[in-house]
Amino acid sequence: MLCRTLVVAVLAASVCAFPRSGSITSSDVINQIISEGYPAELHQVTTADGYILGVHRIPYGKDGPSEGRRPVVFVMHGLMGASSNFIFLGKENGIAYNLADAGYDVWMGNARGNVFSRQHITLDPDHSQQKYDFFDFSWEEIATIDVPTMVDYALSVSGQQTLHYVGHSQGGTSFLVLNSMKPEYNEKFVSAHLLAGVGYMNNFPNSELRAAALMTTVLYSLARGIGLVEIRTLDDISIAGGILGRSGAGYSRIDYCMGDIAYKEYCNMLGLNRIMGDTDMDGLGVGGASLKQFAHYGQNIRDKVFRRWDFGILSNNRVYGSRNPPAYDLSRINVPITMHYTVSDELLNEQDVLAMARDLPKAEARKIARKTFSHVDFIQAADVRELVTNYMIYRLNRVERTLAGIE
Fold first, then answer.
1. Average pLDDT, whole number, for the chain?
2. Are 170 and 321 in contact (CB under 8 A)?
3. Which of the ends of the chain has fewer CB neighbours closer than 10 A, N or C?
4. Between 282 and 62, where is the model more confident?
5. CA quadruple 248, 250, 251, 253: dihedral sign
């Protein structure tokens, strides 16, 4: 029981706000998009290390295909998120729909391990031993393997040479890590819009999670020792008509965040009920994630840095050739970036956003006009179109007109 209780801090140290899970499949996403009057496609892309990723596409808007080139926008979700995040608000306010109606070919990625990318050519994520290898990844692997694999695929299928990028939370992290570690990808992005993109941690705003992060490394080891390697979703738990139907009184969906009611105390201590208590988002879907993604954020919060995974001094010397992990060098990123942020974000401080904007060669920080706008509001708020998406489309259109020599 001691190990079970201690594990919680490593999770709380790096948890990002995310919405409730619903029982959702790739077919559900496709059917939902079609029901809104849009075309929809599901593509499966296999990474070099064997993960099979689901990618959803809306190739054009409700008015039908247009003549000529349709610029590509690649959209990437945050921690515990999924492509379904960007259609949750429906055809009027959903970011993916708005982009498609504005004339863009919209591709929505899914990171390894989430509900739409929980497959591998050899590893079984539900196997008692193979799960350790399957979930042995952080957001660095998502950034340096998953995102470029999906981006290259989208460019190949669409016949384009470049695209625009939109990333929420960890989707922003992925963009920063990819283009700092693989600067050749700078040439493939025309522009980027990071919606509460998490990077620098010098001023992490949540004091409770900041305190918990001090024990991240040891608690992550304890978690793996008792078999906890995945933060799960209702989609992965066979309880429909089962546990909840027979004896689920008093339990909420979030009580099953570890995939087992026996770990209910973790879910409560993680603060997930508090984080999610003001949302009603059963249709949005929680994607699931590796515990190591949470722990990597925890390390960065603890050390007030934005750097690679910390293996410990001895292993760091072997892997990196230095005592400490290397920091991600944002000066290597020359893509024009707009960093959208809010002053009410409990997971990203304004000063850290401004510091990143200063260190990025071509970046500007844009404060959301509503002071109460939250971290998760970028994908759930009814006024996101007014406060974020319309401006983003305006900027994308300006870039496209410049490329076409119109302005």
1. 85
2. no
3. N
4. 62
5. positive
Number of domains in the chain: 1
| 375 classed as catalytic | yes
CA–CA dist 86, 81 (Å, integer):
10
21 is catalytic: no
- pLDDT tens for residues 149-165? 999 999 999 999 999 99
Q: The whole model's pTM is what?
A: 0.88
Please pick, among 169, 174, 191, 290, the residue that the annotation labels catalytic.
Answer: 169
Please tell me the distance from the alpha carbon of residue 123 to that of residue 326, in angstroms, as a whole number.
Answer: 30
Q: Work out the number of other CB atoms within 10 angstroms of the CB of residue 257.
A: 28
CA angle in degrees (0–180, nearest 5) for 286-118-326: 85
pLDDT at 211 (0 to 100):
80
Catalytic residue among 77, 120, 168, 375: 375
Contact 324, 302 (CB under 8 A): no
The pLDDT, as a whole number, for residue 281 is: 43
Domain of residue 283 covers 2-403
Other residues' Cβ atoms within 10 Å of the Cβ of residue 280? 11
Q: Which amino acid is at 234?
A: L
Assess contact for 5 and 267: CB atoms under 8 A.
no
What CATH number is given to the structural domain containing 42? 3.40.50.1820
In the chain, % of residues over pLDDT 90 = 66
Which residue's entry shows tokens 């610029």?
Answer: 71
Q: How far is CA 294 from CA 30, 37, 99, 223, 349, in A?
A: 29, 37, 30, 12, 18
Residue type, 105: D
Q: Are 276 and 266 in contact (CB under 8 A)?
A: no
